[in-house]
Amino acid sequence: MRATERPAEPAGNGWPARLHVVTGKGGTGKTSVAAALALALASGGRRTLLVEVEGRQGIAQLFGTDPLPYEERHLTDAPDGGEVRALAVDAEEALLEYLDMFYKLGAAGRALRKFGAIDFATTIAPGLRDVLLTGKVKEATTRTAGQRRVYDAVVLDAPPTGRIGRFLNVTAETARLAKVGPIKTQSEGVAALLRSPMAAVHVVTLLEEMPVQETVDAIEELTSLGFPVGRVIVNGTRPPLPAGRVVTTAELRRGLVAAGLPADREIVAGLHDEARDQVVRRELEDSLRADLVELGLPLTELPLLPDGVDRAGLAALADALLKAD
């Protein structure tokens, strides 16, 4: 399929938004999930943009590439002729672009960098940094060429749950404080997009107590601020244990002997303790899963990748996301 014939709608009925904001507690794998989602939504000849805004270069590390510049670049191909591009948004570069776009200060704006004026501006007005970052994401999401969207979907690897509400809401606060001018107009446009059906905020979690609690708190905050919450994505899930009781030490011993393995008392006791701990752990996971179900949001579970998040693992996650109802 040629680029000019790309499908007009994002892939997958379960992912109707055009801008997908992916957040989660640190350590839950939100960057891997964001990358897998960008790959999934690019399937079938579509083009997606994967954006990061925290300066960690997590996307480059995940794909084993050079650090991403402030420039949209081809990252990887997707099944059936799709393409994923990537962008690391830098606040300083975004400010220079902003000054050139709205105030025609291209050369003069670049000169400001030599005097530290840009650092000064983002220091005295910390919210300005997030306005610039989200403004660039909004521009990429709404950009058109030849009367169609440049990207079928944009996936934002966003700040973690502890900061996501403040990060997304800063444009609304800026629009309220600014009286007139391009800053007010841009802030209002970004705030409107983030609260529209075009956007969805997905929260990544693990079946562990702290990530689940942060997920519940983040969803409550996002909802109170008017942001459309999409899915709860449970990462690193394991297949269910067979139903029934924990095997006895006698059964373990017989099994080890039948397999020709050592079956002394210490080994059998260690295996029995491990089996019991697994049952307790799975019961806790079931309880936490029930807490997530009570949120009333679509729940998507991704498998634990025993070999880590390599390219094959990303493809497996992308396939699971694409099949989400």
UniProtKB/TrEMBL annotation:
Coiled coil: none annotated. The keyword Nucleotide-binding applies. SUPFAM superfamilies: P-loop containing nucleoside triphosphate hydrolases. Keywords: ATP-binding, Nucleotide-binding. Gene3D superfamilies: P-loop containing nucleotide triphosphate hydrolases. Residues 20-176 form the ArsA/GET3 Anion-transporting ATPase-like domain. InterPro entries: ArsA/GET3_ATPase-like (IPR025723), ATPase_ArsA/GET3 (IPR016300), P-loop_NTPase (IPR027417). It holds the Pfam family ArsA_ATPase. One of its GO terms (molecular function) is ATP binding. This is Arsenite efflux ATP-binding protein ArsA (TC 3.A.4.1.1). It comes from Micromonospora krabiensis. The lineage of its organism: Bacteria, Bacillati, Actinomycetota, Actinomycetes, Micromonosporales.
